[in-house]
Amino acid sequence: MEDYSKKTAEYLLQIKAIKLQPSNPFTWASGWKSPIYCDNRKTLSFPEVRSYIRDAFAGLVRTLYPEAEMIAGVATGAIAHGALAADKMGLPFIYVRSGAKEHGLGNQIEGYFEKGQKVVVVEDLISTGGSSLSAVRALKEAGCEVLGMVAIFTYEFKKASDEFRAENCTLNTLCNYSVLVDTALSIGYIGDSEVETLKKWRIDPASWGKTE
């Protein structure tokens, strides 16, 4: 299977979809202090990167899940990427909201699907895994057979790994935190002195800002 990780990391750093600032941390919505910020929505603004991700997703799904009958994107960040990948593969596409609409038909899953269809879920970013797996559960409850999930990037938090294992859902990503840090060092984006800080953060992100 082709390894997309290094090229994906280079693209994400190049277009500033991912920023690394160990000495000037970001504050996430959760309140966590973080030396990294990821906004994969930016990939859609760069045709070369957008096409690469589309083709990489299609390659992953064809290799890992040749029996896939449908692609499902997780709203909102992965709707476009999922639709692009589905179009590339000639497969139907649906997307999953964070919750059911409070008006109209009250749908949580948008688009046409049938019970028993084999679905691969597309996500843009995996942090703790909560919202991503909520979409997986919604699809299962609706009668779909979820084969697995593919995503652009994961922070590789242990909590996410544990949650995916508990849900019995396989996760494959185009890039991960470890490869990103190694790639950033190799291209001179960061220096050796910053690598240790970045590695320590991933081990215990919730308390990192309190002790640094």
Do you know the CATH architecture? 3-Layer(aba) Sandwich
Question: Would you list the SSEs in sequence order as H and E?
Answer: HEEEEHEHEEEHEHEHHH
State the strand order across the main sheet: 7-6-5-8-9-10
| Number of β-strand runs | 10
CATH secondary-structure class: Alpha Beta
Major sheet description: 6 strands, mixed
Q: Which fold does the CATH topology refer to?
A: Rossmann fold
**Rough shape?**
globular
Radius of gyration: 17 Å
Helix content: 40-55%
Q: What is the count of structural domains?
A: 1
Q: Helical segment tally?
A: 8
The span between the termini is 39 Å
Q: Which class best fits the helix and strand makeup?
A: alpha/beta
- The low-confidence parts are none
Whole-number average pLDDT? 93
Strand content: 15-25%
3D architecture notes:
The chain has 212 residues and is α/β, with parallel strands linked by helices. It has a single domain, classed as Rossmann fold (3-Layer(aba) Sandwich), CATH 3.40.50.2020. The chain has helices at residues 5-14, 47-64, 79-89, 130-141, 158-166, 177-186, 192-203, 205-211, and strands at residues 18-20, 26-27, 33-34, 36-38, 70-74, 93-96, 109-110, 118-126, 145-154, 171-176. The strands form 3 sheets. Strands 7-6-5-8-9-10 form a 6-stranded mixed beta sheet, with helices on both faces. The mean pLDDT is 93.
